[in-house]
Protein 1
Amino acid sequence: MDLGIAGKWALVCAASKGLGKGCASALVREGVNVVITARGADALEATAAELRALGREHGGAEVRAVAGDITTAEGRRAALAACPQVDILINNAGGPPPGDFREWGREAWIKALDANMLTPIELIRATVDAMAARGYGRVVNITSGAIKAPIDILGLSNGARSGLTGFVAGLARSSIAARGVTINGLLPGAFDTDRLRATMQGAATKTGQALEAVMAKRSAAIPARRFGSAEEFGAVCAFLCSVHAGYLTGQNVLLDGGAYPGTF
Ligand code: NAD
């Protein structure tokens, strides 16, 4: 299927690794020019080189890399400045740490809200009206399956991402909906990325088990009996950004191998 987005420009935040990289790769395969960001310049440049090689195989998409923290105003300014126009915005950033809410003061909450609620909102604010003026725009917020099925120790994530989801539910249905702009959430369940492995390693160390044993037990609890891959996450993201998904807005698409137990 031709997704109809070759030649568009996408800003893909936090994309040197994991799910962000999966989204950037899928877009580059479709001929979309991308600006990717991450904090560490080395990993980011390595990913940019990979994506440029991919671009040469798929219609010559341009790839620009901007090192910086997307949760800061300066990081966002640099990322936006590198993108001639933002037709597609993929919001992503690292997730907040787990813990007990009794230990989280105002500072911990502000940090989580900055990263996982206010940063995406700032980037939407900076881009959505120009998208609407051009009659086409796609915003995909990478959030978490935890907004549907909250995990107690991830309270900072549950709270901040639910705030973003609630805000976006209203914005997606505002006047921009009639002007070609869609905004959706893409909710990962368990995906095999560095972050997942780091979390599993923490559990393995705590319980004295091998990492592989903890991962096997975790994946056995998923109806698909496996973790998701960044490639399949990226493929769904690219479809949400396609011309074919113009009537799909204000939704939260869960990708979790069947882990969520509800009918809806
Ligand atoms: P990852 O650790 O594999 O990759 C994260 C990427 O984001 C890296 O490229 C890193 O450099 C970049 N990054 C992190 N913070 C940044 C910042 N402030 N500014 C710029 N770049 C930044 O993580 P992942 O597994 O791809 O997760 C992506 C998001 O999805 C996270 O918010 C995570 O909490 C969420 N999530 C992941 C899973 C999963 O199973 N992997 C499940 C639910 C939610």
Note: DSSP finds eight helices and seven strands in the chain.
Protein 2
Amino acid sequence: MANVLIIGAGGVGQVVAHKCAQVEEVFENITLASRTKSKCDKIAAMLPRKIDTAEVDADNVPELVKLIKKVKPDLIINVALPYQDLHIMDACLETGVHYMDTANYEPPEEAKFEYKWQWAYQEKFEKAGLMALLGSGFDPGVTSVFTAYAKKHHFDRIHTLDILDCNAGDHGLPFATNFNPEINIREITANGRYWENGQWVTTQPMEEKRVFNFPEGIGDKDIYLLYHEELESLTKHFPEIERARFWMTFGDSYLKHLEVLQNVGMTGIEPVEFQGQQIVPIQFLKELLPDPASLGPLTKGKTCIGNIIRGSKDGKEKIYYIYNTCDHQDCYQEVQSQAISYTTGVPAMIGAKMMLEGKWMKPGVWNVEQMDPDPFMDDLNKYGLPWQETWLDKPFQ
Ligand code: NDP
């Protein structure tokens, strides 16, 4: 039985705290810490059993080390923002604690979506006998494990991979992002990029568009090519992949709002001086937009995230589609959060459980697709994210 420290009390932190609290046989003691302690206390009050809460600025390594020494966790689940990743990894090394997260480190001043900074910690974690598990959310996370599972059970060789992320939920508001607006907008306004024949191909934001008929009654949706961090790790760990792309659905109204915000400079990440103060436009915009956590009771409809994989087995070419659908209202009933936070928080709990049960325990820095997919896939079915698999007649073009 283990003691965990969860850092970050946003939309995802709320789900992770709920799900860990549900699995008492693994997560015996839980501490939830964030910059704002009142957010942790609010979440703690919703849970079926008692957890501890604390205030910490995870960018202040000595302050974090002090908290870790007090809590003495076996593992830190980092669901703060990508800017904190390296600071939390440093504190883990200093105190001898395992680490996991759901998003790659981002330097605050540039949107990069690269793993290189965290992969550079490989030797340090290995030498310390500690494990850092990277990207145990949904995408990256479940989509990465889906790829490993497909390779293990269905293919000798993967030729193409398309990750399709559909949010068919509607919150009824004119404009809001479903997770941290700053991260979300940085992701969407960046150039698109995909892997083809051993190199990256760059596209303009939203340049590549398709329509895909999603299962379980969702139907036809517009889907756009984006760069997403798991493409980097998946093409590294499955070098046979000839083409890897990531797609996300957006409605016309969402894109129109974003275009206007971009045109007027509200999505910028460079500080501007305003009445004697330095203001980062996108951070100011975040303050104006609805808190993603407040969308829970409003959002209706489903998400559907999965992979279409074309590959060969015993010389025969096959097209495989594996996905999860998740209902926003069902998530809200269970943990008072919408499906975007739920589909990230559940795999974060499962990744932590894999490590603490010793099923995924290996010193060093690892992405989830480097681990055995089978126990994780079993737990997805058990803890709220059941998956379906099917074979398609036509490739996704
Ligand atoms: P939120 O913005 O809702 O929450 C972030 C939380 O982190 C807040 O509670 C915030 O503080 C806290 N935080 C920020 N800075 C610090 C700091 N310096 N020290 C301590 N706590 C801090 O984000 P989400 O919950 O939506 O997302 C959490 C993470 O999950 C992000 O990294 C995001 O990129 C990732 N994510 C991953 C997905 C995946 O599928 N892999 C999908 C969606 C999200 P405060 O307490 O002051 O509010």
Note: The pocket of NDP is lined by residues 7-13, 34-36, 39, 56-59, 79-82, 84, 102-103, 137-141, 179-180, 183, 292, 344 (CB under 6 Å).
